[in-house]
Amino acid sequence: MVVLSEPMPGAAVREDRAAPVAVDDRRRRLVLARFVLRLVAQLPGLLVVDPVLALLRRRPLAVSVGRRARRVLAAMGPVYDSLAQLLASHAEVCPGALFAGFDLGAPSYEPAPWSAVRPAVVDAFGPIDRRFRTLASSPFHTTATGQHHRGVLLDGTEVAVKVRRPGLGGTRALAEQAFAARLVARVAAWMAPAGVEIDREALAVTILAAYVEQLDLRNEAAHLTRFAAIVEAQGLEGVVVPAVVDDLVSAGVLVTTFLPGRPATSSPALGALASRAARALFVAARGGLLPADLRPENLIELDDGSLGIVGLEDCLELDGDQVKALNVVFAGIVKADARVVVHGLDLLGALGPDTESRLVAARLEWLFRERGDAWRADPLHGVPLLFEAFRDSGARAPAALLVLAADALHLHALGERAGTGVDLRGQLEASGPLRRPPASTLGDPLAPHELDAAAPTEWVMPEFSLRAGMRSLPPWLKPRRDHVGDLLPLVTFIVVNIAFGVRWAILAFTALSLQAGVRRKLRGEPISKPMKVGIAIVLVAGALGMFLQSGIVVFLPQLAFNISLNLALVLSLVVNRPLYAELAYLLWPLPAHLRRDRAIERPVFWWCAAYAIPHLLFLGVCVWLLFTASPNTYVAVSGLGQHLSAPATALLLVGIKRVLARRAPVVRERLLAAS
């Protein structure tokens, strides 16, 4: 697994500060509850306001949904916002990503009042009028960790005064961000190619340690100074970082020169700026400093056309051995020598005793020869081909590689947004001369049969039949004969209610509803936690129903569950991720570009919408019957509808299957021809 190197001097102290922040079950439940409540608060706007705005052509749904998701994550804290940006960049590069097609724009943060900012500045530097000619009370930019106020020093220098946001360093705040760090580590492991190992716990500790370090703005001042020195030493022009003002640096307040400009994402020269940022990234990495937050919000086009880079509070400082190993990797990439790249990866600690090093080298060699640019996207899956080199190889991901990969992902996404792309290999070559790479340790040169075996296998069209699809379903989703037994409690309720009254009918219904749990217990099979919760709900509802002699109390939990399912169904349509379309893609897997093509996406969406509308109407009828009709009438109608949903779902899957069988081969040939 991953062995994380010391990211910078004093890292052991940072890890000591981060590691004790444990996330117990209670804290985890509280964080999840807050997250769910924030999501629920967005539902009215998501289900009512956003569709209306989309119909009026005021704002596309992709923008509304994406920004709401980003707002929810950003409100949870700085590490959650980093997770949102990582998901956004991944979505722009990989069409099969979670948020592919959505616009996760930069969120807006509520700034701290001037009454809280002014004392922080005074405590750090003394009376304001002795340091500043003017200092704005309103910030011009607010981030997850701080807010920036414009000011003018006594000598007339325009400056930006960054003040750390209050309430970020408490034990509760750190515990919540620790939970976010684990989420980021989990997402990083999910985004990594299959077979690449990431020690999620070690990565989470490193992320939290970096966050703790960001709370002391003196660390950001050191990063800015070192980054500027590296850029100047390498003679890189057109890249500027804010200069730290001497004697105006403290743990909670940092004063730097002001960089006038506009966000790089709003510039017509976005492609050129992204390329320049890539060169700056490689120059800094070769100098021993890796910016860990090179996301779009931290890139500025200055008034003179230069690139301004801000947000260097989170950086990874490399030791001498790591710099040498990284330079070996870079030399191998520039020379298109896969064996040298693998040697550098080995020096970085990415290859373990179980890693198939020759397989990785053969895949890289195939990419260099056949594709040239390893960041070129696969025409069907949309994933950069570089990921294929590490798939199922047993490779590991040290911290330096993870940070470099995240930065490359951000810059590659910017190039995709600009429509020009970013030649990462070209920018690496332009970052300065590289030393002659050392000899490879792989032994004999790669044989032709190894290169042939390393070529990515062509995707094969699935068999579009219900029988073949059912084989792909997990066991709990497959229809079984014993599902017919679910009708027994409903039929029994009607019969007993007619013969003996509602109280005995509720007793019989409750007893028969527990039959599944009883059978599992008698067979010695474990009862899962969701099943235990369901049993408890049935028992409580049954007891209350018998006491009150009310069928409404008994059937209301079941109706609430159906309402939740239908709400999820509607919500999936609103965000253009139909649940039953995802089920169809589980039965008949398609590459991301095929699924997202309008020739397939639109008819599949309308099939799912046609399925959802009758379900919603029937749900309304059930709600009306439960509160106005007799219990027997409700049970008969709801039971009939419940068991008609199975053939309706089968009809839906048949319709989607026909769409896929007819259109997927045509779309596939078109995409391959266009590539």
Q: How many alpha or pi helices? A: 26
The largest β sheet comes out as: 6 strands, antiparallel
Oligomer: single chain
User: Spans with pLDDT under 50 lasting ≥5 residues?
Assistant: 1-21
Radius of gyration: 29 Å
- Please report the distance between the alpha carbons of the first and last residues: 37 Å
Sheet-strand content, in percent, reads 5-15%
Overall residue-averaged pLDDT value: 80
Describe the structure.
- This protein is an alpha+beta fold and 675 residues long.
- It has four domains: 1-109 and 169-214, no CATH class; 110-143 and 145-168 and 218-258, Phosphorylase Kinase, domain 1 (2-Layer Sandwich), CATH 3.30.200; 317-454, no CATH class; 466-674, no CATH class.
- The protein has 26 helices and twelve strands.
- The chain has helices spanning 11-18, 25-55, 61-75, 78-93, 114-125, 171-191, 200-214, 217-233, 270-286, 320-334, 338-348, 357-370, 386-389, 399-418, 424-429, 448-454, 466-472, 487-500, 502-513, 515-523, 529-548, 551-574, 579-587, 592-596, 598-628, 631-674; strands spanning 132-135, 141-142, 146-153, 158-164, 239-240, 244-249, 253-257, 261-263, 289-291, 299-302, 307-309, 315-317.
- Strands 1, 2, 3, 4, 6 and 7 form a six-stranded antiparallel β-sheet that branches. A four-stranded mixed β-sheet has the order 5-11-10-8, covered by helices on one side. Strands 9-12 form a two-stranded antiparallel ribbon.
- α4 (78-93) packs across α14 (399-418) and α18 packs antiparallel against α26 (631-674).
- The chain is globular.
What is the secondary structure topology, with strand pairs?
Layout: H1 11-18, H2 25-55, H3 61-75, H4 78-93, H5 114-125, E1 132-135, E2 141-142, E3 146-153, E4 158-164, H6 171-191, H7 200-214, H8 217-233, E5 239-240, E6 244-249, E7 253-257, E8 261-263, H9 270-286, E9 289-291, E10 299-302, E11 307-309, E12 315-317, H10 320-334, H11 338-348, H12 357-370, H13 386-389, H14 399-418, H15 424-429, H16 448-454, H17 466-472, H18 487-500, H19 502-513, H20 515-523, H21 529-548, H22 551-574, H23 579-587, H24 592-596, H25 598-628, H26 631-674
Parallel strand pairs: 5-11
Antiparallel strand pairs: 1-3, 2-3, 3-4, 4-7, 6-7, 8-10, 9-12, 10-11
